[in-house]
Amino acid sequence: MEFVVREAVDDDAPNIRDVHRASIEGLAAQAYTDAQIAAWAHDRDPEQYPIDAAETYFLVAEREAQVVGFGWMKPDADDYFQTAINGEITAIYVHPTVARHGVGSRIYDELEAQAVRDGVASLGLWASRNAVPFYEAQGYTRLTDHVHEYRGETLTLVEMEKRPLR
Fold it and tell me: How far apart are CA 102 and CA 109, in angstroms?
């Protein structure tokens, strides 16, 4: 399958939101209940994606001029991690129609390459349970579970880390 990965622009935000919701609704059923998925995929404001934030590197994948995936990385990790890591992968989502066709892996590779260029020595993330095998394939190890609340529903997320980077 042919697709391109590029830096996101503000006009991508509504399409990013659509991919975000479709990914959750289409790929999380083996790990979460219908109620948990509905709460997690709730209406999202396209303005909330940090496309232009100085502290993020935000990418989209396009196929035939349609956004089919996105992800972003921060070279300075937030303080909610239980392990000492430098940067974080905040999100990688792909549309269910392109799942398992290399889109997520390509987005990941580009994000990690930018982290290396930024001098990041280790990356952390909180993965949904359904995404854990994807991140393990990228070289991450599981550290601990966290309970996160979305609109009254609790979901278990898995803290993971990768060190050293490629």
Answer: 10
Which one-letter DSSP state was computed for residue 75?
Answer: S
87-94 and 123-128: which strand pairing?
parallel
- Per DSSP, helices labelled H in the chain are 13-27, 34-40, 103-117, 132-137
Q: How far apart are CA 61 and CA 91, in angstroms?
A: 13
d(CA 14, CA 10): 9
Ranges of H-type helices in 60-166: 103-117, 132-137
Q: How confident is the model at residue 4 (pLDDT cuts 50, 70, 90)?
A: very high
Distance (Å, whole) CA 89 – CA 95: 18
**pLDDT, tens only, 14-51:** 999 999 999 999 999 999 999 999 999 987 889 999 99
pLDDT tens, residue by residue, 69-80: 999 999 999 999
Task: Specify the pTM.
Answer: 0.95
C-alpha distances in angstroms, 87 versus 2, 32, 122, 161?
Answer: 29, 27, 6, 10
Q: Which of 149, 163, 104, 106 is nearest to 130 (CA)?
A: 104
All structural domains of the chain: 4-162 (3.40.630.30)
Contact 139, 78 (CB under 8 A): no
